[in-house]
C-alpha cells in the first residue's frame, strides 16, 4: 500500500531494477496514525452532546507484485526507497508466499511464469 503521489516514482523504480510487471488498484484505508479525523455527521438530535470523531479513510494504491524468492529483497528495497518519507502514511508491504502460478496463454507453471 503506497501513497498515490508516489505511484509514478514507484513504477519507474521497479522498472529500473527489472521488475516492470505488477498490478495496481485504488484502495481506501488507514493505519494506526491519529491524523485525519472528522466529526460524525447526521447525528440524532437527541444525541447532539455526543459528538463522535471518526477516522477518515485515505486514498492509497495497492500494488500486487509477484516475484521469485531471489528477487523478493530487491522488490522490497526498491519499493521502500521509492516511497519512504519517514512520515506516517508511507505505506506497508506484505510479503506472502505464493504456492504456484499458471500462465493462461501457454499453461506454463511455476517461476517460469514470472519472467
Describe how the helices and strands are arranged.
Elements: H1 7-16, E1 23-29, E2 37-39, E3 53-55, E4 58-64, H2 72-83
Antiparallel strand pairs: 1-4, 2-3
Given the structure, what is the number of helices? 2
Secondary-structure element series: HEEEEH
CATH class: Alpha Beta
Q: For the record, give the distance between the C-alpha atoms at the N and C termini, rounded to a whole number.
A: 23 Å
**Binned strand content:** 15-25%
Main sheet: strand order: 1-4
The helical percent reads 10-25%
Radius of gyration: 19 Å
Structural category is alpha+beta
Taking the sheet with the most strands, its summary is: 2 strands, antiparallel
pLDDT averaged residue by residue = 89
Name the CATH architecture: 2-Layer Sandwich
**CATH fold label:** Alpha-Beta Plaits
Would you mind describing this structure in some detail?
The protein has a single domain, classed as 2-Layer Sandwich (Alpha-Beta Plaits). With 115 residues, the chain is of the alpha+beta class. It has two helices and four strands. Helix content is 19%, strand content 17%.
Keywords:
Alpha-Beta Plaits, 115 residues, alpha+beta, single chain, two-stranded antiparallel sheet, 4 strands
Write a brief caption for the model.
With 115 residues, the protein is an alpha+beta fold. 19% of the residues lie in helices and 17% in strands.
